[in-house]
Write a structure and sequence with these properties.
Helices cover about 25% and strands about 30% of the residues. It is an alpha/beta fold and about 180 residues long. The strands form 2 sheets. The chain has an 8-stranded mixed beta sheet with strand order 5-4-3-6-1-7-10-9, sandwiched between helices. A two-stranded antiparallel sheet has the order 2-8. α1 packs parallel to α3. The longest helix is centred in the middle third of the chain and has 12 residues. About 30% of the residues are buried.
């Protein structure tokens, strides 16, 4: 059975975007990007909200021989993975191997997890909140940027309690920190 992994770059105070919707401050360097690439290497499907999909769709056309080996590898992961985008406003996908669904179906994701041999990655805090509330998320990966933004779009739902077990901590040279937690039974 596959795991559903929620992985997000955040500020130290837990925001994925600031009050103005900006997130450039969370851009990973090569070291962090290589770590994320390795983490998502065993991904068969990305589950994404519209905004996260629009941000990540750039990987569809990223040159395969770019200046960064982590970027090259991540682009390959993106292009070979299936993408399910949950949106009521998006009509046609801009990438291959992509389907658009109007609403998040908890039972369909349970079936997908049980049938898949590779992991699923969920992206976008609103979509992830639905999966978290349904008890679908198996692992949480927070990549904390050395930045406090004071408000914006928070990475976790504010109205839920979950007991987690620490799976690992990784410190990176330029101040990023990775926290890995597993959902407890």
């Amino acid at each position: 059975m596959a795991k559903l992994i929620y992985s997000m770059l955040t500020s130290l105070d837990g925001y994925v975007a600031d009050k103005d919707g900006h997130f450039r401050w969370a851009a990973p360097d090569e070291e962090v990007h290589a770590f994320i690439t390795n983490l998502e290497r065993n991904t068969s499907t990305f589950l994404l909200g519209r905004r996260m999909y629009e941000v990540l769709a750039v990987w569809e056309t990223m040159p395969e021989d770019g200046p960064s080996s982590a970027s090259n590898e991540y682009g390959k992961i993106w292009r070979t993975a299936n993408k399910i985008v949950y949106s009521t406003s998006l009509i046609k996908p801009a990438t291959k191997r992509t389907v658009i669904k109007p609403e998040f179906d908890v039972e369909a994701i349970r079936r997908l997890k049980s049938q898949s041999k590779q992991n699923l990655v969920i992206g976008g805090p609103q979509l992830a909140a639905e999966a978290i509330r349904a008890g679908l998320v198996d692992e949480f990966h927070q990549f904390i940027a050395p930045m406090v933004v004071g408000g914006g779009n928070y990475w976790l739902p504010q109205d839920i309690k979950i007991k987690l077990e620490l799976g690992g901590v990784q410190k990176f040279e330029k101040g990023f920190v990775h926290l890995h937690y597993n959902a407890s039974d």
